[in-house]
Amino acid sequence: MAGLLEFLVRHGYAVVFGWVLAEQIGLPIPAVPILLAAGALAGAGKLSLGATLGVAVLGSLVSDAAWYLMGRLRGGAVLTLLCRISLEPDSCVRRTQETFAQYGAPSLLVAKFVPGLSTAAPPLAGIVGMGLASFLAFTGLGGLLWAGVFVGLGYVFADQLERVAGYAAGMGTGVVALVVVALGVYVSWKYVARQRFLRRLRIARITPDELRARLEAGEGLLVVDLRHSLDVEAEPVRIPGALNMTTEELSVRHHEIPRDREIVLYCT
């Protein structure tokens, strides 16, 4: 923590802006420690509280605007990209879609506090055609709330954070090494879990060309379209003859799926 505080004192607002921007773009580098440290420095009079909040919100807003524009221009392909770069299985985007579909624009106010929703909500706003002014207003307020909470905590508990920094400095580089190793283990575990998930998925997968050939051959397959309503809105093309229902409806509509035919589930 001591080294972090010294680094922030030297480079100040540029670090806060760049770190927040990088995290919100999707890089696995947490911005919360930076915001806490910057708040502590503001509490000690070494940084301006208003300027610190301003650059944090600006970094968040730049990232969100970039993702929003990608959603407007590329549609559902952006969600596919998020699934590929995410360390979580593909359900991360599904959870984000559920939250966004239920609460709409107000979900942007709390998006940054929810893992997965923080990065996926801005492109979803672009995909569903939310107005730019409305998006910037909600995501800007959400960024201010998020940054304000952690910068404010650092500001209020500046003395305690300085003590922690002192303890960390006394323990030397071992603390930094321990944190780096722990982060590496976590990322590696998530990566291995994701690869296992993808291997299981590939085993039971059929390509679009294979499905089309079998349907044209009259094999009697039944396609169940499980896409979320936001996916359908972004790309309203449907497979002819497919049965449409969401995964949430399976428990009450499962009787509509015949048991004497081969079933192909389609979700993206």
Largest β sheet strand count, sense and barrel closure: 3 strands, parallel
Oligomer: single chain
Class by SSE composition:
mainly alpha
Strands, total number: 3
CA distance, first residue to last residue: 44 Å
Q: Helical residue percent?
A: 55-70%
List key phrases describing it:
3 strands; 3-stranded parallel β-sheet; 13 helices; 4% strand; mainly alpha; single chain; 268 residues
Layout of secondary structure:
Elements: H1 2-11, H2 13-25, H3 32-43, H4 49-74, H5 77-85, H6 91-103, H7 117-127, H8 132-156, H9 158-171, H10 174-203, H11 208-216, E1 222-225, H12 229-234, E2 243-244, H13 250-253, E3 263-266
Parallel strand pairs: 1-2, 1-3
Helix pairs in contact: 1-3, 2-4, 3-8, 3-9, 4-7, 4-8, 6-7
Structure description:
- This protein has 268 residues and is mainly alpha-helical.
- Helices cover 68% and strands 4% of the residues.
- It has 13 helices and three strands.
- It has a three-stranded parallel β-sheet with strand order 2-1-3, with no helix packed on it.
- α12 (229-234) links the parallel β1 (222-225) and β2.
- α3 (32-43) crosses α8 (132-156), α3 (32-43) packs across α9 and α4 runs antiparallel to α8.
- The radius of gyration is 23 Å and the shape is elongated.
- Residues 164-172 have low confidence and may be disordered.
